[in-house]
Amino acid sequence: MEESPTPVLDVLLHPIRWRIVQRVLGREVTTTDLKRDLPDVPTTTLYRHVAALIDAGYLTVVRERKIRGTTERTLSLDQTKVGRIDEREARAMTPDQHRQAFLMLLTRLAADFDRVVESGDLYPRIHQLGYSQLALYLSEEDMAAFRSAFAKLIEPYLAESPGKDRVVLSMFSLPDD
Known about the structure:
It is a single chain. By secondary structure, the protein is mainly alpha-helical. It is 46% helix and 11% strand.
């Protein structure tokens, strides 16, 4: 079977799989946690999509334990892999596939923002909220250096640790005429 030119799209451009990935970002969760976090997703559907993400290498089973005759799996996600579309893959995508990927990300971002605003927990955590847009002037080499420096900057903050809140950072870069 020939490898798809867009494996990220094949796996992640499904609304349920995208939501699962968003819930696992930066932490370890059990399948029970996912059922609680995604109550509108039927259990069999959830397990099917978790299995697809495991098979594709996006989710990793870090622990298993027996609970009342079933096996509960604890999952983690390699954050450096998710949402990264390499140049080969990006070139293989159609403009409509790029729109679909971007729209899915924006839709989830808007839903997450609404969830925070409606939770009643916004103002005690207002220092963790931010949104802005900047214009940078970068050559191709500058962009590569910027990405490398940014990756080095955020790397110490990607692992869950006691006493730290989970904050989801979303960034976009778009060429501008």
